[in-house]
Amino acid sequence: MATFVPATERRTKSPHLPFGDRRDAPFYGMDILSVLQFRREDLDYIFGVAREMRSMVDRIGTFDLLKGKILANLFYEPSTRTSSSFLAAMERLGGSVIPINEVTYSSVAKGESLPDTVRTLQTYADVIVLRHPEVGSAKLAAQYTTKPIINAGDGTGEHPTQALLDLFTIQEELGRVDGLTVTMLGDLKYGRTVHSLSRLLSLFDVRINYVSPEILNMPPELLAELNRQGMAQRELTTLSPVLPETDVLYVTRVQKERFDDLGQYESVKNAYVITPETLEDAKEQMIIMHPFPRVGEISMEVDDDPRAAYFRQMESGLYVRMALLAMVLGKA
Ligand code: CP
């Protein structure tokens, strides 16, 4: 586990302080690469700013907190939610965006390296959001730019902003995190969202059940890391024994694109499907979450169940990402 460095002592990357920016603002100039950067106090702060963002969007829609700032939204993998919510977040804050989606039409298609691409974008933008298929890519990119890098998913590694919005959703939906039982279901081997969320949950007093086919179990080194944090964890292959005790059911897609052997994918792709019948044994107050996209693991009939929190979860992404952009740019 990375050594925690308090926000106020962390290196700021921006060498020049534009008018109106606050160098003493928590997270000013910082990269957001992993949830291991955060402690509970940081989460309280981020969620407080996210609530303010929600209130501002409700009241006035768009405002000029980041007027004049530019985000480079650099996506080497497909995305709907992360890409469009960062774009919407920047525009709601009055800033503008250089959108580079799937890099098909950028010079990456001609063989340009990640370091050269981010060194180029830092000359145009104030902050870079990066999604890339390789674990560690965001950390690598951060070494080549003085502008903050926000990791929007590095292969099967981490998806820290998703974990922050997931935790924010749990807090807002259930009013607390301590004391909850969280059950993660599906592709726990390749699912970067569950990797980041489980690490973030280790800051709280929670129990986690992992339900997956054996070939998609959580990585053993991550289980060991969480064990050292004192996390109460249990691995299963079926949901029914733990559903009645579950407060948060976090469902994930089996990620076809991560399999070398498509026969193996076919053998597990329909391992779990949540239907209204599945939920008969669940708590009335349980919430169902999913980072999306879904490809059949939650039946659309579940969408009308008040426990289905996944569309509200997506909306939370906007407010949390507005908060993060404002923070790393010294405006919150
Ligand atoms: N949750 C998530 O990362 O979705 P996208 O792949 O659509 O960004």
Question: Summed up, what is this model?
Answer:
The protein has 332 residues and is an alpha/beta fold. It has helices at residues 40-60, 81-92, 114-121, 137-142, 160-174, 192-201, 220-228, 262-268, 310-328, and strands spanning 70-75, 96-101, 127-132, 149-154, 181-185, 207-211, 232-236, 248-251, 287-289.
What does this structure look like?
This protein has 332 residues and is an alpha/beta fold. Helix content is 32%, strand content 14%. Helix 2 crosses helix 9, helix 5 crosses helix 6 and helix 5 crosses helix 9. Bound molecules: phosphoric acid mono(formamide)ester. The site of phosphoric acid mono(formamide)ester has 10 residues, from helix 2. Phosphoric acid mono(formamide)ester (CP) binds next to helix 2.
Query: What is the end-to-end distance?
Result: 28 Å
Proportion of residues in helical segments: 25-40%
Q: In the CATH hierarchy, what is the class of the largest domain? A: Alpha Beta
CATH topology of the largest domain: Rossmann fold
Widest β-sheet, arrangement of strands: 7-6-5-8-9
Low-pLDDT segments: 1-10
Helices, by number, come to: 9
CATH architecture of the largest domain: 3-Layer(aba) Sandwich
**SSE arrangement, N to C:** HEHEHEHEHEHEHEEHEH
What ligands does this structure carry?
phosphoric acid mono(formamide)ester
Mean pLDDT reading? 93
Query: For the report, how would you describe the main beta sheet?
Result: 5 strands, parallel
- Report the principal-axis shape: globular
